[in-house]
Amino acid sequence: MKFRVHPKVAPEPTIIDVHKEKMTESEEDVRNYVISMNDAAANAERGYPTNYVKTTKYTILTFLPKNLFEQFRRLANIYFLIVIGIQFIPGITPTIPITSILPLAFVITVSAIKEAIEDYHRYKEDKKNNQQEYQVVRDGQLVAVESQFIEAGDIVYIPKGTKFPADLVMLSSSTEGGICYVQTANLDGETNLKMRKSLRVTSNLSEPSQLSKLKGVITCDPPNERLYQFTARMETETGEERTHSLDINNLLHRGADLRNTNWVYGIAVYVGHETKIFMNQRKAPSKFSTVEQQLNRITVYIFAFNLAICLLMSILSGVWENDVGHNFPYAGKNPSQIK
Q1: H helix or E strand, kind and range, residue 124
Q2: 261 CB contacts (<8 Å, ≥6 apart)?
Q3: Are 141 and 229 in contact (CB under 8 A)?
Q4: Residues paired with residue 282 on neighbouring β-strands, in sequence order
Q5: Which residue from 34, 86, 178, 292 puts its CA 20 to 30 A from 112's CA?
Q6: H or E stretch at 193
Q7: What pLDDT digit, counting tens, does each position of 151-160 carry?
Q8: What does the pLDDT read at residue 326?
Q9: Kind and range of the H or E element at 179?
Q10: How confident is the model at residue 90, as a pLDDT?
Q11: Please, are residues 199 and 247 in contact by the beta-carbon 8 Å criterion?
């Protein structure tokens, strides 16, 4: 029995595209969110927003056009507006336009006042939240800062019973082991307390003077609406282990309350409209109920019926004038035909 021996073929060398690998790393840096600790200048260069929030629908300049647009989404208002326009044509209707203008103006005015009052309440709530004071670590001391001026990278002191002003990575707390308890009823409706913890490398930093010396960066996912997902890492400039993993158990959500813990320190990573609670919020909707949708359909049917009746009567009038109307000169349009 003969065996055929095949010569060994050397495997093709693997070609590594160094340029492509560099581009991939660069794209990864762009996708990630990098927060420098105690380095406001570096964070400012990255263009992160402030903690200012706004939930109102209108401004003084946009209220009139936006509200009128919403009012005339209701086809009944458009229908009466068309009727008013027709009443301005001489000889079309025996009534004066004011009889239709006043009811339509009344309905639009009342609806606009109602919308303005609701939006004003939203404005007052935004102003209250934006002007609430928190203590932030600046140059080794705690400084009172309004919530709207908190920026990414600020280290914030949160006492017991206070809502978190931004999404914070927990650094330390008043309890041993660097743990705390939060209530997230404003986020997910759950009233049971959840435990959050800090990293071991920062859990013993309990004084502003110690926290102000903390140097390094936090690299995390870009702002997103996933409440229960947070992937990040903290890289410190000192210590034996300089890279530490972070997850959802290290994150303090904006809107949650601190409970059963005297105080915590946290560093802001997502602020303002980039926080998870605001990423999950929708803009104030334009109220358009099921009844109004049904009314729109009924208005279309009424308009179509009126249009059909007008067209039918016009056609029958023309036929009558051509076939029968000439026998009744007194009903004609030309007075000279009357004998």
Answers
A1: helix 98-131
A2: 160, 173, 174, 175, 179, 180, 181
A3: no
A4: none
A5: 86
A6: strand 193-197
A7: 999 999 999 9
A8: 66
A9: strand 179-183
A10: 76
A11: no
| 33-51+150-279 is a CATH 2.70.150.10 domain | yes
pLDDT band (50, 70, 90) for residue 1: very low
Contacts 24+ apart (CB under 8 A), 25-31: 31/222
Determine the angle formed by the axes of helices 98-131 and 63-71, rounding to 10 degrees: 130
Pairing status of strand 232-236 against strand 141-146: unpaired
Tokens of 270: 């997502």
Q: Residue 89: count other Cβ atoms within 10 Å of its Cβ.
A: 9
Query: What residues does each domain of the chain span?
Result: 33-51+150-279, 63-127+285-315
Q: Which pair of structure tokens corresponds to residue 236? A: 């410190």
The closest of 34, 49, 4, 72 to 292, measured between CA atoms, is 72
Residue 147, token pair as written in the block: 């919530």
Beta-carbon contacts of residue 131 (< 8 Å; ≥ 6 apart): 146, 147, 148
Q: List 244's β-bridge partners, or say none.
A: 234
**Cα distance between residue 163 and residue 173, in whole Å:** 15
How far is 319 from 337, CA to CA, in rounded Å? 19
